[in-house]
């Protein structure tokens, strides 16, 4: 008699089909809400990382110009070996930072390479205005040209502007929507 009573008192453990369907539906709704927020967060992280990389190399170029009392150039580069043509305004593929020992604003075998940056992932583009084809820092730390601006354009979200003034100081801001 005892064995029959214990069999009736035991309850099956686990989930019913209805509980599994409701749980799956709630999970699907939460994922639909979370995924777009995560993708915009990822895009802003990638934009900020690209901005930091460019800014760090600009600061490095200026400080090396002051440190060695020599002209230092930061130019866009498509192959990581030579500067892109001066008409090239795209910086997404990468750039070079070097001491310009021969004074021609182009990287050659006589110049001293300081840093190379390869392409930055996760962003749509990095473009410069007409003044930002090359950043040439004089031994005083000032730029040889006027103020220049680079724009870091993410796949989604706000565009970040990197402005280098004539004195060589870097300022960050967000671009106004068009």
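Sequence proposed for the structure above (178 residues):
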């Amino acid at each position: 008699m005892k064995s029959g009573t214990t069999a009736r008192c035991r309850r099956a453990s686990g989930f019913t089909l209805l509980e599994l369907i409701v749980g799956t539906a709630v999970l699907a709704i939460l994922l639909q809400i979370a995924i777009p927020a995560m993708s915009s967060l990822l895009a802003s992280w990638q934009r900020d990382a690209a901005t930091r990389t460019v800014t760090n190399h600009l600061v490095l170029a200026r400080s090396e110009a002051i440190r060695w009392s020599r002209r230092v150039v930061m130019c866009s580069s498509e192959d990581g070996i030579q500067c892109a043509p001066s008409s090239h305004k795209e910086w997404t593929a990468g750039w070079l930072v070097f001491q310009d020992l021969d004074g021609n604003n182009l990287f050659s075998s006589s110049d001293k390479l300081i840093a190379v940056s390869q392409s930055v992932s996760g962003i749509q583009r990095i473009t410069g205005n007409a003044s930002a084809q090359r950043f040439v820092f004089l031994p005083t730390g000032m730029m040889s040209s006027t103020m220049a601006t680079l724009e870091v354009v993410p796949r989604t979200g706000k565009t970040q502007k990197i402005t280098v003034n004539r004195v060589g100081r870097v300022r960050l801001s967000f671009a106004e929507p068009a």
